Amino acid sequence: MTSESTNKEAVLHAARAFVQEEASKHSDGHDWSHIERVTKLATRLARHTGADPFVCELAALLHDVPDEKLNDSLEAGMAKLHTWLDNQPLESSTRELVVNIISTISYAGGKGASVSSLEAQVVQDADRLDALGAIGIARTFAFSGARGREMYDPALPPREQMTREQYRNGRSTTINHFYEKLFKLKDLMNTSYGKELAQQRHEYMVQFVEQFKQEWEGTDA
Question: Which pLDDT score, from 0 to 100, does residue 95 have?
């Protein structure tokens, strides 16, 4: 094993330990199991697309560290990320790419920046895939429950247009979140493999929401 590959393994090992401790503070769908799934998906997508597997794995492991939902602010989260990176033996170009990926993959109410590198496309797809399907449904209800958001209110329609601030803090419901974000994700995937998986998971969510509404209204009998 070369010294470079040894360094990469050491960085990934340190990242797992760091993120596992950070993720243990959250039970709202942004826990360690979410990080593990996204990382596995990112490495699979990297193999399919020819993206740099090390960059994809590291960015996937770290992608939630600066998330503004999980920190006092985005700035505080980015400072935490940079402090950790300062202590890692990374080339400046690799570090810059990882930070760029993490800074640009967020959905942010559909107002996020567009991704440029193949590695960013891979990690973004992996993160979005974990917001879809059966796991996506479970994470949505876990997050809403942690934030005290009601499940459903037929009198409160999904928001068509909203600012990033409104998306983060405006009143909505768990079911509305499917329309405001989750149902849009399949058309925003970057990679062909990601699109294929997203379509399957999207269809499962559509069936779930239809069944949910029928049971809510008592029309499923």
Answer: 95
* Cα end-to-end span (Å), the chain: 63
Return the DSSP state at 131.
T
Over residues 124-145, mean pLDDT: 95
CATH number, domain containing residue 33: 1.10.3210.50
Token duo for residue 130:
């974990």
Mean pLDDT of 186-211: 96
Q: Are 21 and 100 in contact (CB under 8 A)?
A: no
C-alpha 170/C-alpha 101 separation (Å) is 27
- How many domains does the structure of the chain reveal? 1
Yes or no: say if 101 and 174 are a contact pair by the CB < 8 Å rule. Answer: no
Tens of pLDDT along 147-161? 899 999 999 999 887
